[in-house]
């Protein structure tokens, strides 16, 4: 009977360790400032987290959500981090760049016309609501 219990415990430990390998982690990064340093820090955070988990044999899903003044990050012709976003999008499909629809509408009202975003950015209805949804889904939250 002891051998059976030991075999069961060993099987459980092996299964648990196998499940721990190859985990998927989730990260939401919040950008709400029109500051190149903050934007670069957000992108650095994303790259560092992705590299760390890749070395562990894990996957990571990252979403960078910009709203308010931080939307400058995704505005074509105004973003100070266009090249980095383009490169990161080409390197991997595990990063999503989300732009706040509320902020975009307000920007378009102010300018009286369409505001072009980087092709890598996808519009979500509300940046704040998107961050709430991600946290509700278990994403870790970072605001650089």
TrEMBL record:
Signal peptide per UniProt: 1-20
Keywords recorded for this protein, A-Z: Signal
Presence of the UniProt keyword Signal in the record: yes
SUPFAM superfamilies listed in its UniProt record: DsrEFH-like
The keyword Iron-sulfur appears for this protein: no
Source superkingdom: Bacteria
Cross-referenced PANTHER family: BLR3518 PROTEIN (PTHR37691:SF1)
Designated name of the protein: Intracellular sulfur oxidation protein, DsrE/DsrF family
